[in-house]
Write a structure and sequence with these properties.
Elements (H helix, E strand, L loop, with lengths): L5 H18 L6 H24 L4 H7 L2 H7 L4 H7 L25 H6 L7 H21 L1
Helix pairs in contact: 1-2, 2-5, 2-7, 4-5
């Protein structure tokens, strides 16, 4: 992972969320939209975790966070980040998202399905995932 400081994550959250909002209903490619809100949420959660632990720079992460939090900071797993923030039970991700290739999409893989434009068997499942991301994004916005 590249070095990113607290302000980088905060700015990335805000910029990705703003871009998501600007194209929310304007794009035919909903996977691009979903990828943006995924990355906004990921950056926002990482910002919140760094802020909570008093980490201004990437170097502070290994010094001020426990092992679980350090691992969470290095992943795309939103559940792990929410758990590190003690808020994993507030948001329920759908667990039944299946690609047209038969793969089950884990929470930390949703951005890949969007980025690679992989078809989802039931698009409503992906829409439900997006709705959870929007809810998390709103919660982050109250704290960011």
């Amino acid at each position: 992972m590249l070095n990113a400081d607290q302000k980088d994550f905060q700015k990335a959250y805000r910029n990705n969320k703003a871009t998501y909002r600007s194209i929310e209903k304007k794009t035919e490619n909903d996977k691009v939209r979903k990828m943006l809100i995924f990355y906004a949420v990921e950056c926002g959660l990482k910002y919140m975790l760094m802020n909570k632990r008093g980490c201004l720079t990437h170097a502070d992460v290994s010094e001020k966070m426990d092992d679980y939090e350090v691992r969470a900071m290095g992943t795309h797993d939103l559940r792990a980040l929410l758990k590190a923030l003690h808020n994993e039970s507030s948001f329920k991700f759908p667990t039944n998202i299946v690609t047209i290739h038969g793969d089950i999409v884990q929470c930390g893989q949703f951005h890949e399905a969007c980025r690679y434009n992989i078809g989802i068997v039931n698009p409503d499942d992906a829409n439900l995932f997006e709705n959870v991301l929007v809810s998390i994004s709103e919660w982050i916005g109250e704290n960011c």
